[in-house]
């Protein structure tokens, strides 16, 4: 495969993962919290796989493409799309997908995990970054942009306690999926 074909293949694979993350937005359970409802979706799972299977740069790129598509107004987010999404407190979790995917891909490229528990450790680092980004953004936007005062305790309950266990199950599932798929992808697709 020449360099041009390789670049086209990379872009197609990044676009595929952007599409998977978008599809994941529509497989959702709505959680009624204040100031705006949160949606538990499969986007997080696909952002984990993007990092593991595509690596740091391509995984991050696939999430950034997804975010850009949503911010220009195409309704690929759980509640639509458009630039107004930037002032939604839960947008930090969408940004968290980028941190999650980029960190997972970077660590996977550096560590080259071979065992399932190594994949789980890497996925857990991404999980921590995802929640850190989402919770900080939720607090800042709520308190300083839309002027809906919330304390850290409420942020912790609304943004972590309610969704942490199901998201960590997705984290485990993503690590196990990656454990099986990464060797195949490295050997056959992204050489």
TrEMBL record:
List the InterPro entries hit by this protein, alphabetically: BioY
State any GO CC term: plasma membrane
The record's Pfam families line, in alphabetical order, gives: BioY
Q: Report the GO molecular function annotations.
A: biotin transmembrane transporter activity
Q: How does it sit in the membrane?
A: Multi-pass membrane protein
Mainly resides where? membrane
Q: Which UniProt keywords apply?
A: Cell membrane, Membrane, Transmembrane, Transmembrane helix, Transport
The record's subcellular locations are: Cell membrane
Instruction: Provide the transmembrane region boundaries.
Output: 12-31, 37-56, 63-80, 86-107, 119-140, 152-182
The entry sums up its family as follows:
Belongs to the BioY family.
> What is the protein name for this chain?
Biotin transporter
**Which species expresses this protein natively?**
Candidatus Fimiplasma intestinipullorum
């Amino acid at each position: 495969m020449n360099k041009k074909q390789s670049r086209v293949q990379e872009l197609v694979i990044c676009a595929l993962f952007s599409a998977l993350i978008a599809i994941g937005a529509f497989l959702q359970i709505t959680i009624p919290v204040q100031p705006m409802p949160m949606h538990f979706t499969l986007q997080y799972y696909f952002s984990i796989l993007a990092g593991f299977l595509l690596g740091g740069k391509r995984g991050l790129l696939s999430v950034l493409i997804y975010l850009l598509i949503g911010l220009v107004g195409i309704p690929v987010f759980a509640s639509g799309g458009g630039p107004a999404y930037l002032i939604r407190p839960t947008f930090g979790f969408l940004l968290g997908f980028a941190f999650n995917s980029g960190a997972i891909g970077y660590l996977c490229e550096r560590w080259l995990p071979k065992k399932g528990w190594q994949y789980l450790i890497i996925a857990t680092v991404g999980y921590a970054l995802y929640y850190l980004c989402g919770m900080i953004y939720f607090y800042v936007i709520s308190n300083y942009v839309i002027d809906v005062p919330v304390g850290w305790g409420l942020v912790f309950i609304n943004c972590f306690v309610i969704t942490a266990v199901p998201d960590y199950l997705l984290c485990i599932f993503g690590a196990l999926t990656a454990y099986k798929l990464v060797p195949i992808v490295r050997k056959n697709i992204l050489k």
